[in-house]
Amino acid sequence: MTASSLTVTRREVQLSHGTTRYYESGAGEPVIFLHGSGIEQGADDFLPSFPALADRFRVISPDLLGWPPSDTFGDIASFAYLVDFLREFQDALGLRTSHMVGVSMGAWIAAIFAYESPQRVDKLVITGNPGLHGSPNRRMLSWQLPDDATVASWVSKVARVGGVDAEKVTQEKVAKMQTDGYGDAFSKIMSHMGTDENRQRYAMERRLPYLESDTLYLWGKTDPAVEQVEVWHKLTPNSTLQVVDAGHRLHVDEPELFSSCVRDFLLGKA
Fold first, then answer.
1. pLDDT tens digits for 94-120?
2. SS3 37
3. Cα-flanking dihedrals φ and ψ of residue 70, to 5°?
4. Within 13 Å and on the Cβ side, how many CA atoms surround 103?
């Protein structure tokens, strides 16, 4: 399936906190994609991966709880709330189980979800240095709202398939970010997730030996944690490690390579 022939549907679902936006395409076994931590990131990030997967899978990409243009609220305790959001999102879509593909922060959330709710995850893909050992992240503690140009630059990289209007997406994100209290709520998510104690509390290394899902660690050669991923792979039962010629943001910089690796793994070819 080509990007020009792909049909992508933008949907909204009402959850306990408000409205969540997501994209959906294709049919078959459901695959949920989870994005990274930047406020400019979101459901749009995986649109370039949809064409390679939508012919065999039902691909679903939501904004995580607290990311624009979806709704937020004032006291989101990062890890725990984001994981619970996934369960509620599956429930709302009538999904008892699905594949999970997470990048960076989204990979950490997917891993915790797979540990806590193994019966709800089929196969698991982890990519892009999610910090599973709970190492400090000072960048999150000093987070500041990006300017409109930064948001537009990011969205233009990803919102380019299935008739999605990148300019409209950017305007929608920026408008939501600028609503009263939205930036403050997001800053609290970053502060909670960046605090050393919370990162240690939710560190996955001690939990990895108990993961039940078939797991793919998909890593770029120049990703900062390329050496650490060998440790995580050895700790994780039923796991596969694939290192490719790419960096941290494999899904954005090399979307065809990323989606090809994910497709092969989900189809049992990797």
1. 999 999 999 999 999 999 999 999 999
2. coil
3. -75, 165
4. 26
